[in-house]
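Hi both,

Apologies for the delay on this - the queue was longer than expected. I finally got the adenosine-5'-triphosphate-bound model through. Below you'll find the protein sequence and the ligand SMILES exactly as submitted, and right after that the structure tokens for the full complex including the ligand.
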Amino acid sequence: MSRSPSIPDRPHRDIDSDLPDDERLEALRGHYEDLVDVNDQLSAQLDDAEDRRERLREKVDRVERENETLKSSSLYIATVEDVLEDDQVIVKQHGNNQEVLTDVASRMVDRVEPGDRVAVNDSFAIQTVLDTETDARAQSMEITEKPEVTYADIGGIDEQVREVREAVEQPLTEPEIFNEVGIDPPSGVLLYGPPGTGKTMLAKAVANETDATFIKMAGSELVRKFIGEGSRLVRDLFEMARERQPAIIFIDEIDAIATRRTESKTSGDAEVQRTMMQLLSEMDGFEARGEIRIIAATNRYDMLDRAILRPGRFDRLIEVPEPDRDGREQILGIHTRNMNIAADVDFADLADDTDGYSGADIESLATEAGMFAIRNERDEVRHQDFAEALEKIEDDDSSDVVSSAGYFYQ
Ligand SMILES: Nc1ncnc2c1ncn2[C@@H]1O[C@H](COP(=O)(O)OP(=O)(O)OP(=O)(O)O)[C@@H](O)[C@H]1O
């Protein structure tokens, strides 16, 4: 950065008032010339500063334009294969494995090394260097060695728990039964139903019970990534599961990558389609009796592409509905287990009053009731706290309380 020019000293002359007029006039003239001189220096400095400001403004405009272009255009992922002389590199685009010789902007040259993942634009110019692959993998997957959720934490869906145990747990714990009978266990299990009903809990509980690693990936993560990356992440997901088997792969919001084919052929749709094809091909090449089980979940069953439901894919469908009255009472019991509940709390009554509540809604209700007790400086939660919590939740967002309202899942 250039140093700012120094400000000239303010001219100063002592002019003796006893001097004869002509000498005083001469001194004043001299002083005036000094002032004009300083004024000229300051004007020149001002012109310089304005020039500099203009140049900076142009630079800001240019960076902003570049930024806009970056934001508005699709970028492709590539890996740097080689860095050559004269600021050139060879990159290999993910997805189609095309190798391209491309220039690197001077501002990027020192930051690019072979093996780096980069985002390139339509003309293959490198726009940015991305996180390392391991970071990207870790960011998009949730990996838990042994989730803490157990079947005892899940209320109101006993039949679904039984079905999941049969379809996912048994092939892991007693594979010989399937060998003896001579059938393949279901390849993949699809849990469908409104949000917050315990689908994720079910998948975690199986992993807990079977000492399997739980690997979760959200469908929305797969489509949010850069072009060419969704299918790579699917490959990574299965690779990760193979490295850590026994493992439960849980793909939440599978509808994000497996919606019914639409007429539109935008590049985004094509990308989603590629991601889904990769998932199907991973599943097709999968050993059904192996140590990896796949569970997917959706609350948009109506939107699903039927291709994923074919035999050998997600061929066991389990509906996880909103809890009924008894289910709600059971879930209330589970979520108040560790609370200091007063004798007057009537769970049967609360179950009657929570028609349409999901398990997640009931969990919020219990927490909210606890908050009312704290607000009233009590360590015991009374029926009145639950009643006020119910009222508050309904007031807060009457359209949101019934979490399944507006969702189609059949
Ligand atoms: N059947 C249930 N029994 C006990 N708690 C439940 C039940 N269903 C939901 N919950 C509570 O709600 C929380 C969210 O549930 P979960 O994530 O399993 O729902 P989900 O069906 O996977 O929802 P989404 O479709 O939104 O992903 C759980 O952590 C749990 O506390």
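Main takeaway for now: The radius of gyration is 34 Å.

I'll put the files on the shared drive as well.

H.
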